[in-house]
Fold this protein.
Amino acid sequence: MTTTPSTPSVGRPLTRLEGEAKVTGLAPYAYEYALTDPLYLGPVLSTVARGRVSAVDTARAEELPGVRAVLTPANAERLADTEDREFAVLQSDEVSFRGQFVAAVVADTPETAREAAGLVDVAYETLAHDVTLTADHPRLYRPEEVNTGVEADTEQGDPDAALARAAVVVDRTYRTPMEHNNPMEPHTTVALWDEGGGRLTLYDSTQGAHPVRHTVAGVFGLDPERVRVVAPYVGGGFGSKGSAHAHNVLAAMAARAVPGRPVKFALTRQQMFSLVGYRTPTIQRLRLGADRDGRLDAVVHDVVEQTSKIKEFAEQSGVCTRMMYAAPHRRTTHRLAPLDAPIPFWMRAPGEAPGMYALESAMDELAHECGVDPVELRLRNEPPVDPSTGEPWSDRALVRCLREGAERFGWHGRDPAPGARREGDWLVGTGVASAMYPHMVNPGSVAEIRYGEDRRYHVGIGAADIGTGALTALTQIAADALGRPLSEVVVSIGDTDLPEASVAGGSSGTTSWGAALVAAARVFRAEHGEAPAPGASARGTAPEDTATPGYSQYSFGAHFVEARVHADTGEIRVPRMLGLFSVGRVVNPRTARSQFLGGMVMGLSMALYEQSVVDPAFGHVVNHDLAQYHVAVHADVSGLEADWLEGEDPHAGPLGSRGVGEIGIVGTAAAVANACHHATGVRVRNLPLTPDLFLR
Amino acid sequence: MRPFDYTRPDGPADAVALVADDPGAAYLAGGTNLVDHMKLGVASPTRLVDVRGLLGNRVEELPGGGLRIGASVPNSDLAAHPAVRRRYPVLSAALLAGASGQLRNAATTGGNLFQRTRCPYFQDTTTPCNKREPGTGCSALEGHGRDNAVLGASDHCVATHPSDMAVALAALGAEARVLGPGGERVVPIPGLHRLPGSEPERDTVLGHGDLITAVDLPHLPVAARSAYRKVRDRASYAFALVSVAAALDVVDGTVADVRIAFGGLAHVPWRAHRAEEALIGGPATEEAFREAARAELADARTGRDNAFKVPMAVNTLASTLRGLTAEEAR
């Protein structure tokens, strides 16, 4: 035996292993691969929200020097499988939303492609469209299930009767707007078919190389082995890159027209507002029935949202209410209005982010009605078991997060009266909200370990690091699983040439891929011992049930926020935010903190700024760039603190960890809104909270 | 993006001759707005005449006590200039309230005055816009109207002027020195920008080929106590919902002199003559400030989305003048 025991890597606050390569520009993002003789794609997007393409005149575009091909619904190849209509690109003349692909140009330079796209003359037969979500939309329907595959509606007890007899009833409707993910790196695909046209390579910006492979292979009728997806570095995704989208298909179609030459396609910021998903607007009615001490007897959460007519996506905004607090009588419902709108999709904490905004706002209103401190109100409604399943909690630490968070924030002694504190021209208030996120694990990821001539363990898994630090965390996990120091382990990710891995979504990546690494390391050590010969290799697969069945597994947290509202102008500043979380074992404190902070900033942004404004006449998002779609900037963020409870979840799998990527955005907006109410006495129930809403 | 020629002439007169003789030509200074428009298809000049190196990049004293600002002085340099900070703090504050550090380094004094509206429909070539394509209609009238003008708008256009700097210059009564095909002339600010009327495509009174070579600030003692207050949705890097440039001199509780201009309310930086007249000689009280603001906004016309601008403007002016009064009292 030549091995020496290694100090554990998990738990160390390592900096990102690829950080230097990224900041020195050496880490290639999808568009940056130095491929030979690339061509460039310029898409043409529909300018009507509903109708038919009646004619496409490509003559002027084709006359432009440098144009190689113009694709239209008339000449585009017929795809093998377009049951998922998001991917039925140029397959018919039908226009289903404004900003849909209706043609595309392939040209020698990006400038020529853009210019030529503008010269493609598309004529439409326009039909009346409907892009406006209303609470009583005539076409509302109940989806078969909502995102994550759970039922759309649930009911326990007799919530109507309980509400009718409740001493205190809060009956409020909260609205959240359409919101768009805006990762710094736009959605990008570089597509390359080999000369024979039988193999396709995509250099992609995605949260899942293997999921993109499966989708694209299906659409083109290819054996998945003939599609390679390469995505080792990704500049943010937030969910919007959690699936292939139409641009992947369009780029591959365009590249087929010029075999042997790569076709580069990066969406513009404006194009991202119609083609890569968005968070649906929500209209959420919350009814809470309680006794005078604030103990809940009934909770009803009715959600109205939109989806696209061509593909359903049902955001699970009401699902959080099924398990959050104790109440014998409970109902949750989801209804969708199908609109002539782009296809909604994942945006950081789909479901939980808008749902917990509404629930935690209503809880604050109940606390106010009952004269109970908002922290205490939540403690009084703590359920001993999961109310939705009756299962015991694996590690429910909401009470500790609230109590310890309150202590650290200086919550105690807070004057509950709203609008009672003024410092100069600023009205000052504080607010609290709970956070939670389910423990999600995707089974089936595979990892491979090979011991190299360089005396290092080369670990391969097709996982994705979208800027989260996943590569670093996986290297730490692999090192510990192999019992080796970090310097002897090299992890490769982001390529379908590596073993299959699940999507970076649902805060599941590190847990799901980590389980595969642990499994592979076990096999490797069993087969090759601690002193392997160069060339030794082994594979391992994450088990179907990484988490222990029979337990209800969630992460929890508490947000505490100080808000200041200007008495004259209504401007809002948030000088202080504290998020305290419980996520099981933290693999890398540095990158985990970064995830919490990022989630909290995005939650602040959701509370105060983010809103995609749809013009009902045209059907498009009017403010479709970062000058107009406001996200929090540096000057908006100060006094931000995130921390977590030490510990591990014994039922969460081999690592004892749950995800960290999304819980930071959950509940944040409610804490901000509650603080603004405490500051001013003005309760705004629509996001975002803009200065005009606080003018007096 | 369309192909275009790029020319760097030898001097301002050459530049003027080049542009005046070529209807497809446009001046290029910092490029912070024009280049965006070229990418978006909002502007398609066939020739860019780069004037940045031709025009003054210094701030100079004028004999009467004013300042002459070369048209190529970057926004960041102007904001940091000691004489500007001391004698015209409103101008420095307005500049620093605009854009971002990088943009202020690139943007010039002359170019800033030619910023075009950020109305989303103007910037989107797939929607009708009378300013971009005269006669096509105004999408903002019935569409997303949160940024729409409340003063001086027309049925043809409800766009607002985006510049912060221009609001300060309007309050100060600055003058633009203009070189045109017919020679040099002076155009006062306000007076440079125009209300949309039936020709919203024209932002200013200048003609094609006219070139601003410098901006003169008058000797104006009241400006030493001045402030710029910009209200926006986030703390930085957003255009004004409402902004106020104000200078105030109070003697024994009475307003001896005052200059006020509003941003975010109109197609022009809006000099508030009516409010100034209401205040001069009267008491420097909260009530008087609000009364003056209400007088200025008496003719405001609001739509579905922008009614808040009236109370916001009243409150912001009152708040700004209150702050200047308190400063004076110290």
The mean pLDDT of chain B is 97.
